[in-house]
Structures are given as C-alpha cells and as structure tokens.
Amino acid sequence: MSNWIINHGLSAFILVVWMGINIFLFVYYYLFYDQGPQFEYTRELLGSALPWARAPAAVLNFNCMLILLPVCRNLLSLLRGSFICCGRTMRKQLDKNLTFHKLVAYMIALMTAVHTVAHLLNVEWYTNSFQGRYGPLPENLSMLDDSRELNTTYLNPIRSNSTTPTLFVFTTIAGLTGVVITLALILMITSSMEVIRRSYFEVFWYTHHLFIIFFAGLVFHGAGRIVRSQQVTDPPHNNSFCEDQPENWGKIPECPIPQFAGGFPQTWMWVIGPMIIYLCERLLRFIRYMQPVSYRKIVIRPSKVLELQLVKPGFKMEVGQYVFLNCPAISQLEWHPFTMTSAPEEDFFSVHIRSVGDWTEKLIKMVENLPEGGQGPKMAVDGPFGTASEDVFDYEVSMLVGAGIGVTPFASILKSIWYKFKDSDPKLRTNRIYFYWLCRETYAFEWFADLLQVLEKETEERGMRDFLTYKLYLTGWDQSHVNHAMVHFDKDTDIITGLKQKTHYGRPNWDKEFEQVRQENPSSVVGTFLCGPQALAKDLEKKCVKYSDVDPRKTKFYFNKENF
Questions:
Q1: Burial 189-207 (b: 16+ CB within 10 A, else e)
Q2: Which InterPro entries does the entry link to (predicted)?
Q3: Which of 181, 373, 430, 539 is the least buried, fewest Cβ under 10 Å from its Cβ?
Q4: pLDDT (tens digit, 9 = 90+) per residue, 49-89?
Q5: pLDDT tens across 161-181, in order?
Q6: From 2.40.30.10, 2.40.30.170, 3.40.190.10, 1.10.3720.10, which CATH number describes the 292-385 domain?
Q7: Pairing of strands 556-561, 525-531
Q8: How would CATH label the architecture of 388-561?
Q9: For residues 60 and 45, what is the distance between their CA atoms, to the nearest angstrom?
Q10: For the chain, what is the total number of helices (H) and then of strands (E)?
C-alpha cells in the first residue's frame, strides 16, 4: 500500500475529490428538487422524475466545465512551466490529461442517459397531468395559463390535448437542443473507441469536432425554462392548506392563485470560461498555422519511416516534447501529434513519421514522388507541447523504455545528453541512464543505431562507460535470425546494429531489470519513462510499485508515460 501511495497517491486524491464533488452535486440537487417547497406543485405533476432529471443536470454542468480543459495543450504547457517549484509529483498529473478527459466524458455520458430518460418520463407525465389522469390537483395545476387578466401563470408546458410527447420534444427549445446534444454526444463517444481511433483516425477527428454543436446546444438548452417553480406571493399561498381545495384558489385570502416561473438558465455560466480558453487555444493554433515552416532535410528510411528536419523562426523546444503537424495538401483540418527527435541544442527540429494510417501514407507518398532536390509540401506546425519526458533530467537515474517508433522522445533525450557531454554542461544532474528499445523488425533499428554508436564512443572516451546502459530487444524473429547470430556470436559488434552491445531476442524480463537497477542504485530516485503500448505501461507501472521502497533513504521508482 505504501509503494502504491508513492506512485499513485496524488492521482487517487484528485480522483476522489472529483468524484466527491460529483456526488455532492447530485445529492444536493436531488434533495433540493425532491424536498424544496417551491417545487411541491411541480412534483404533483412529475413525481420523482423531477429530481432524477435535475440532479444529473447539475453534475453535467460541472463536468462540461471540465471536459475542454484537459485538451487545452497550451494551458497545460503553461501550468507545467509554473509548477517547477511544486515538484515532479504535481507536474506528473498533467501527463494524465487524456485519462482525465475520458473519465469526465464517461461521467457526462452516464448523466446524460439518466437526465434524458427522466425528462422523457417528465414529458409523458406532463401530458397525462394535462389530460386529468392523475387526479383533480394535477389537472387544475395544468389548466393554469399565462393571463394578465386572471393573474395566472402556467406550470405545465403542455398546453393542448393535441400535443403529444413526440411533438413536444421536436417543437420546443429544450427538446430540440436535447436531441441535438444527445446525438452529437453518441457520435463523439462511439467514434472515440480504440478500434475506430486506430483504424479510422479521420472518422474520430471529424466527429469529435461535433463538440462545437454540443456546446452550442448546451448553452441554449435551458432557455426554454421547462421546469418551473412556485413563486412567493403576497399573501402567501399555503400549499398544505390549499392543495385539497383548488376550487377556492383566488377566492379566499389563504389561497391566492399560485404563481410559477422558470429558472434562469445557468449552464452557460459554467461553460463560458473553458469555452473562451479553448477559443484562445484555437486562435493560437491558427496564428501558428500561418507562420512559415521550411525544410532543412527530408530522409526516407528503408523501414518506411519518414524523417523531416524542419526550421521555423522563433521555435524553441525542450527534450521529449511533441508538435502537431498539418499538411494542407492532405487536409486543412487534420492535425497529428509527433514527438520531436531533435535536441534543443540543434538549430532545427525533426520528427520521424511511420506509415500507420491514411494521413501518414499520403504524406510519405507525396514525399517519395518529389523531384530531385524538390521542397516538401507546405507544412504547418503547432507547438511544442510538454510531456512527461521533459522531466527526465530531474531524476538521478532514468529508465527509458521505447517500443518501435515510440523511441522518438528518447532520441531527443540521448542527443541532448551528447551535446551536454560535448559542452561539459555542469547542470546535468542525471548520473545514469538505462535505455531499452523493443522492436519487431531488424531494419527498425537502423535509423537510431548511429546515434547510439556516437554515444557509446563518447562515454568511453570520457571514462563514463556506466553512464549509459542500453539494451535492444528484437521481439519479432525466426530461427534463421538465431542461427545467423550463433554463427557470428564471437564478433565484437552486433550483427544487426553494429553496436558493441549485442541485441537480445525476445522480451525483457522486467523483474530482473528492475532488480538490477535497484541494486546498482541503492539510494536513488529512478524515473521510468515509457513511450509505447498500454499493455506494456500497465506492466511497468506495477513494477515501479513493486520495487519502490518506502524508506526514503532507499530506491524509489516513479512511472511516467507519454500521452498524446
């Protein structure tokens, strides 16, 4: 439990606070509408469906306020920079922005379902009350109309026997906006499923922009003021005395005709702030879109990986950061995230792009068809944005784990280390780095092996052979690979990479690796960084908890994962 608290304590606390606020809002507004005297006559028409509709609405307001904030990447980068004084634990929470975004979305989906079902029942009961099916009191309340002459105001929005629930839903502001909001939400959630996001990213990207319609409908949803409450009159209307004698309303002093009014719409007050912040984000993206970007170099690797070296005036980056790229020739609306593989010390920034979808395939084909010495297609760049890898130099010891193209943030880190060695940077706090790279194909190693060879030579010349420990794992291999390796096992360099460190076949034994790191660094804080699949993330996260020691004088592992 203590190890778990070290790695997840603050995250759990934030989650508990968020859930606590949701529960408080639900319970508070449920009791408010279920027991509030101003809604006594409204409950005569609607029964318990009234609080079941209004309590989720309060929770929806709160979560709709939050849903945009985790995807305001410039805001997160600003907060990350301002949290330096607060330590790595607080900054780590910002790396879970998409996880929190999904949690909030699930809560919105759940509360929307409850809210919608309850209001559908409300419309049915409004209709039945108007038709006198629930007794004289609901019928009399339903007969009240807006009339200055009679000094009456309506409670039941159903004003005619010909108004069916379906007609009411599609002819009122609340009904129409509710339908639009619900349909937009269903499309956004279903298109966000992992299988669709991975295989049909464009579907996810375009349907997710229905959030504009969602928020527009949300702002106007309460304008119809369907749910009405009783107003204070002079003299006051005594409900307990008057509810059994509606025929005397307005005839005796104790029972003046009850007055009703719809509540002031409040949703817009909850969401206006985040909407303005997000609008500023998109405005900043447009400004960056208009800034010129030039190509320094274009390289197509044999492993179907495209390397772009780009130059943009005023562009500054840190290790492990990522940018969003837009190619107007492919789509003016689509932006895709890519981790930068260059170091901050270089006068350009680079990205490595693997062909894994329609957009990347089209970009690679466009570049392949370029004439000799031709410039690449126009490219717009938004960013850079911060990630967990920015904190790599804040740890005494770092474990870097990359899977396939997930090695890209660590290319930036290792390049930066090389420059720090070259310049003898005294600010380099990191004492040791363990680097693990898992690849399925042999040719995937080729573009990164040169950098490792340079680092290997640099650390040897400086007498820092223990500073960088790296292990490469080939996870996709057959017997021919093994036979070839056995024949050349006595060579000084690896037959695949040309490095002195031999390639391992299969997957790492993480228990063995973590135990080795713990023994070699008995009193260090170890940052474990992953850019790779979720299954590997879960495994490494468990190992960080398992091998962390509660004693502050001993080894602790902190898990960090790249999120886009």
A1: bebbeeeeeeeebeebbeb
A2: Cyt_b245_heavy_chain, FAD-bd_8, FAD-bd_FR_type, Fe3_Rdtase_TM_dom, Fe_red_NAD-bd_6, FNR_nucleotide-bd, RBOH/FRE, Riboflavin_synthase-like_b-brl
A3: 373
A4: 999 999 999 999 999 999 999 998 888 888 876 655 456 66
A5: 888 888 888 888 989 999 999
A6: 2.40.30.10
A7: parallel
A8: 3-Layer(aba) Sandwich (3.40)
A9: 24
A10: 20, 14
